[in-house]
Amino acid sequence: MSLTGSAVLALPGLESLRLRAGAAGVDNPVRWTYVAENEGIADWVMGGELVFVTGINHPRDEANLLRLIREAQERVAAGVVILTGEEFIHAIPDSVVSEAERLGVPLLEQPYQLKMVVVSQSIGTALVQEQMLGRSREHVLQQMLDGDYQSLEGLLRRADSLQMPLTAPRQVALLKLQDSEQLFTQAPPHDAERRLQASRQLLQRRLEQILIELGEPLPLVCQGEHWIALLPARSAHASPNREVLAAALDELNSTLAPLRLYAGVSANGHGPAQLASGLGEARQALLVAQSFPERLGLCCFSDLGVLELLGAIRDRSLLDRFVDKVLGALIGDDSRHEPVLMPTLEAWFYENGNLALAAQRLAVHRNTLSYRMQRIEALTGCSFNDPHDRLNVAVALMIRRLSSPQPNRNTP
């Protein structure tokens, strides 16, 4: 995984570092170190830094130290280290210790006798070693997930040498963070980019915590706005992992808004030779999670039903022709007039043909909805009393939603 605050405390030569507060976050990943030389740190950190506060270049009274702790929490810093001694910061005020504990910010105390050059060299060396080990581990996982290897046995031996056992069955989870463009419409580019990076750091940290909590953790594989997590599969059912992910999505989406996190999960119990197919299953499930908001951002491959069949059709033109044949007249009419027929059709299906509930969902009178449904039947040549016609329309709606690269915010 990553270098953590607890690993920093255990480094040789740093025995005089002492954890004063925020033990709940002591396993936060440390991305780099940063020495605070300005009054605040909010404009200078991107997330994941271990922030050192010396008091040498800027006075650090109680109010300023409280500000630094709060900004560290806001910017998702890995922790704060305050240097104490006779000349600058004599002691850490009790209020600062309490605030760090309340916010879950790891607060370390470093005596001035422990030279910064020793600390920075020790942490820097450990970070480089951890990054090299992390890249090697991620490369092995990437090969496994891509199916890009000549000998599975040889790759497993390399994984063992990296202390990364891969023989146990796993469930593949693929997560995507999207809607970043909304950040850049709400704030200046610099602020939006900083917030995006802080959100990515928060997400990375939380996902790593979840893997640790589930046990037998393997490193996350990060690909742009996607994260691949290999979850332990201890039973034939995926429900424990699904429940954990559902709770995490609910928590993270409330924190990361307007960014939105989606997750697709493979069927359970893939061995090392099947991880590539497991990633394919997770991709299909992620697409459904993005396209069908009623699934609340999470979908398991085992729940796809007919969507699994649709996703397996590689000839896109077949699906496009089917949608055009069944829904083309409605789509064309909506493009020429106010787009009401397709939303009406989707609402009617969502409410299982209940006119009253569909009208309520669309905030229109029931008579209006009834008229629209008659017009839909006239344009499509379908009768909704015919089960075969209803099936065709339902499948065409599914294909259309799956074909959209972004979820339709107006879809029920």
Plain-language structure description:
This protein is α/β, with parallel strands linked by helices and 412 residues long. It folds into three domains: 119 residues, HprK N-terminal domain-like (Udp-n-acetylmuramoylalanyl-d-glutamate--2,6- Diaminopimelate Ligase, Chain: A, domain 1, 3-Layer(aba) Sandwich), CATH 3.40.1390.20; 144 residues, Alpha-Beta Plaits; 89 residues, Arc Repressor Mutant, subunit A (Orthogonal Bundle). It is elongated and about 85 Å long. The relative contact order is 0.08. This is PucR family transcriptional regulator.
CATH-derived topology of the largest domain: Alpha-Beta Plaits
Largest sheet, strands/sense/barrel: 5 strands, mixed
Mean pLDDT: 89
**Taking Cα atoms only, what radius of gyration do you get, to the nearest Å?**
27 Å
Put simply, the count of helices is 15
Question: What sort of overall outline do the alpha carbons produce when their principal axes are compared?
Answer: elongated
Low-confidence residue ranges: 405-412
- Helical residues, percent: 40-55%
Architecture per CATH nomenclature, i.e. the level-2 architecture of the largest domain? 2-Layer Sandwich
Number of domains: 3
- The helix/strand series, from N terminus to C terminus, equals HEEEHEHEHHEHHEEHEHEHHHHHH
CATH class of the largest domain: Alpha Beta
Strands, count: 10
Distance from first to last alpha carbon: 40 Å
**Largest sheet strand order:** 1-5-4-3-2
How large a portion of the residues is in β-strands, by DSSP E?
5-15%
